[in-house]
Amino acid sequence: MENTLAAMRVGLRGLVHNPLAQGAAAIRHRRTQRNWKPQRVDGIVDGLILFDGVCLLCSRSVRFVLERDPAARFRFAPIESAYGTALATRLGITAGTPETNAAIIGGWAYFKSDAAIQVLARLPRWSWARWLRVVPRPLRNWLYDLTARNRYRVFGRTEQCFVPTPDVAARFVGDGIAPTG
User: Fold this and answer.
1) How many whole angstroms separate alpha carbon 46 and alpha carbon 59?
2) Shortest CA distance to 140 belongs to which of 102, 101, 112?
3) Could you give the count of Cα atoms lying within 13 Å of 109 in the half-sphere of its Cβ?
4) Are 71 and 141 part of one and the same domain?
5) CB–CB of 87/44 below 8 Å?
6) d(CA 90, CA 56)
7) Distance separating alpha carbons of residues 175 and 5, to the nearest angstrom
8) Side-chain half-sphere CA neighbours of 34 within 13 A
């Protein structure tokens, strides 16, 4: 009987101290606890978009903004770069498995659907996108999350981070630069 109890304790201890189980639980807990409301940030360049550089949907979104931003208001940082990873960590985004993008506008970090609306609304002929804010955030973010969860399966994934063309490379923030503030 004692051996059985000792084995059960070891088994329970192994389960409790299993880093993979704790990591998955922590991620689930963080996902359910984070509301992704805009947050005030200092020391980050205005107009910076943090994106998943290996996600084809995210890379297409970057191209979409580049083509419609003649004033070059927006700059981009792939989350896979040193700068992007440090910024993601600072903003509470898990860099290895990002569940949101981020847009820094006017000293505020916007996430999920708020980020998309804020960026779109600042592009020429897209100011109407501001009206999307009337849709409740939980509904907007539910649609965002549905797309984000399936983005690799539906749109694809590349093993190499998005590589900008030479004419727009200056608008990308990458390795060797750390976020300030």
Assistant:
1) 20
2) 112
3) 20
4) yes
5) yes
6) 24
7) 53
8) 19
- Condensed to tens digits (0 to 9), the pLDDT of residues 59-114 reads 888 989 999 999 999 999 999 889 999 999 999 998 888 888 899 999 999 999 99
pLDDT at 31 over 70: no
Separation of alpha carbons 121 and 62, rounded Å: 15
Same domain for 4 and 67? no
Beta bridge partners of 48: 75, 104
Predicted pLDDT at 21: 40
SS3 48: strand
The verdict on 81 and 68 lying in the same domain is: yes
At 120, which helix (H) or strand (E)? helix 112-121
Number of separate domains in the chain: 2
Residues 98 and 133 grouped into a single domain: yes
Question: Which pair of tokens denotes residue 158?
Answer: 């590349």
pLDDT digits (tens, 9 = 90+) for 37-50: 999 999 999 999 99
pTM above 0.70, yes or no: yes
Cβ atoms of 112 and 36 within 8 Å: the answer is yes
Strands 48-51 and 102-105: antiparallel
